[in-house]
Request: fold
Amino acid sequence: MLSTTIKEATKEAHQQLEKKVVQKLKAIRSNQDYADLLRYFYAYFSHLEKVIAPFITIDILPDYAQRRNSSFLKSDIEALGGDINNLPETSVPEINNVIQALGALYVMEGSIMGGSIIVQMLAKGGITEGVSFFSGYGPATGQMWGTFISVLNAIAANDEEEAIAVHTANDTFNHFAAVFAETEQPING
Ligand code: HEM
Reply:
């Protein structure tokens, strides 16, 4: 089943990204620092949403409009006193069909799974505002994930199509990690 394959095949990419995000979370000392981190999430997620939108139709995923999206990030950033001007540069995987679009959406929807851990980490550092994005669907999280996974599993008709979804999901993790990597470059000159 695609849901099993994709989880296993993206394990390493998830770990790499998780490591980067945890590092950034640990460095947060103020609402402003947190808003700065959310700007990376916003830049990437809003870019990705734009490229998958033509393929995630109401027939494919009927509850897409009810799902958490980058507008939650915008609200959180603004609640923290930040804004979405001059966002970091982002690049996204190539999305040309519904299978690739769902592979990318797997990464965005799956990020809700780690959300509650992130909210707890932030609370330990005294950050309690602007957490709507990471709070995900609250108690409905399991059910929303179940619905998404059944759509994902129904879309790939054969191994070749599964491989396409897996490839895009890995690319989606890696492109996000690259957005953060840019901030780690030493400033020259
Ligand atoms: C501090 C950062 C993060 C932590 C601690 C974290 C932790 C977790 C945990 C505990 C799970 C659930 C594993 C399970 O129940 O089997 C999970 C699943 C997942 N996370 Fe993360 N995560 C983090 C960041 C992210 C980010 C930034 C993304 C993507 C943008 C992401 C994408 C996913 C996906 C796609 C899954 C679903 C795996 C599956 O069941 O198929 N995570 N994460």
